[in-house]
């Protein structure tokens, strides 16, 4: 009796595995960036990200000091690396062509900030990126010190000293260019 139950469960598992493989191979699960993901895909991605952040994000304090100089460096790094997708201090009024084409839509950090996130979580997201969202890993192009500096700026972007706020207000999220669509 137990042997038959194990065989039945094995058979059901094999059929489910073949069905899942066939579904993926059929192309019925969209792979295009402008298609909305299904509930299962969204649940898997969010659950995995939360678990990874709990396990891997640094838990200690940000090693970069809270100084105007370091915040200014954070603004500069943000302008160079992040504004094109995450916007400027003016919010998402004029998303860049890159940000408009991403799915999932990148948060416009001036309005949907990460000030409440622990520094280590922000550091991890910047360093490692987030799979299947368009968020790249900056761990290969920025030093850890620069990533911590960005995390410091993002943590305090809603309450910057006046001199840093002035620099932040001058950040452009993309160069002013005009793109003409071809076709009807």
List the helices and strands and how they pair.
Elements: H1 2-26, H2 39-56, H3 68-81, H4 83-86, H5 97-101, H6 119-128, H7 144-156, H8 162-169
Helix pairs in contact: 3-7, 3-8, 6-7
Radius of gyration: 22 Å
Percent of residues in helices comes to 40-55%
What name does CATH use for the topology?
Cytochrome Bc1 Complex, Chain D, domain 2
Fourth-tier CATH superfamily name = Cytochrome c-like domain
The overall pLDDT average reads 88
Largest sheet: none
Query: What structural class do the secondary elements suggest?
Result: mainly alpha
Q: What fraction strand?
A: under 5%
Spatial separation of the terminal alpha carbons: 67 Å
* Total of helices: 8
What would CATH call the architecture?
Orthogonal Bundle
What CATH first level would be assigned? Mainly Alpha
SSE pattern: HHHHHHHH
How many distinct folded domains? 1
| Total count of strands | 0
Low-confidence stretches: none
Rough outline: elongated
Structure description:
Helix 3 packs across helix 7, helix 3 runs parallel beside helix 8 and helix 6 crosses helix 7. With 184 residues, this protein is mostly helical. The longest helix has 25 residues. It has a single domain, classed as Orthogonal Bundle (Cytochrome Bc1 Complex, Chain D, domain 2), CATH 1.10.760. It is elongated. It has 8 helices and no strands.
């Amino acid at each position: 009796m137990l042997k038959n139950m194990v065989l039945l469960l094995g058979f059901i598992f094999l059929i489910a595995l073949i069905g899942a493989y066939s579904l993926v191979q059929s192309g019925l699960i969209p792979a295009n960036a402008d298609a909305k993901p299904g509930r299962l895909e969204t649940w898997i991605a969010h659950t995995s990200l939360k678990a990874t952040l709990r396990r891997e994000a640094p838990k200690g304090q940000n090693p970069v000091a809270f100084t105007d100089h370091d915040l200014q460096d954070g603004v500069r790094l943000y302008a160079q690396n992040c504004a094109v997708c995450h916007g400027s201090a003016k919010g998402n009024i004029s998303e860049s062509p890159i940000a408009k084409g991403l799915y999932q839509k990148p948060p416009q950090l001036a309005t949907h900030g990460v000030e409440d996130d622990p520094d280590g979580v922000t550091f991890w997201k910047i360093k490692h990126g987030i799979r299947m969202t368009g968020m790249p890993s900056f761990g290969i192009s920025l030093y850890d010190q620069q990533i911590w500096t960005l995390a410091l700026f993002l943590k305090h972007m809603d309450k910057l000293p006046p001199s840093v706020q002035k620099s932040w207000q001058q950040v452009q999220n993309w160069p002013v260019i005009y793109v003409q669509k071809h076709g009807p």
